[in-house]
Amino acid sequence: MTHPLATQFEQIITGIGEDVSREGLEKTPERAAKAFAYLTEGYTQNLSELINGALFESDLDEMIIVRDIELYSLCEHHLLPFFGRAQVAYIPNGRVLGLSKVARIVDMFARRLQIQEQLTRDIAEAVQEVTGARGVAVQIEARHLCMMMRGVAKQNSEMSTSVMLGTFRESQSTRNEFLQLIR
Fold this sequence. Notes:
Elements: H1 6-15, H2 28-39, H3 47-51, E1 55-57, E2 64-75, E3 81-91, E4 95-97, H4 99-110, E5 113-114, H5 116-131, E6 135-144, H6 145-148, E7 159-166, H7 167-170, H8 172-182
Parallel strand pairs: 2-5
Antiparallel strand pairs: 1-4, 2-3, 3-6, 6-7
Helix pairs in contact: 1-2, 4-5
């Protein structure tokens, strides 16, 4: 085993009564450690390095929306996945962000342990910080395996969260335009 977390995964597997030396589980601690490191790589990322100068001067002042950005995250309460899609909008204030960077921001924050409400806020605040936009809106719809696989076991439940900053918060018409465009 080479990954530092592999020993802990071996202890977990042994702790539930399994034999890590059996054929199907021989390499599982290492694979699980690598997977967990990937799923939480957002902790090793830095916003300015992620953006890497992909901000461009622009006189655009209309809403920019990136829709249906797939996201996968882990809930901090049970370490079970939640997954869904994010809609991110901003109204530029002299600068626009490279299109792929919006999705990268979503991924950076999604690949951390958290609750969906905080993920939504983190994405909105990061886009605001990077762009200096006049307003930012983020809406996320996600399904949580902690609700689907355990507890109340509700298979079709979906959680929706939103954060509105700047003009999206101050102007009902701007907020309504965003909500209408993402439907």
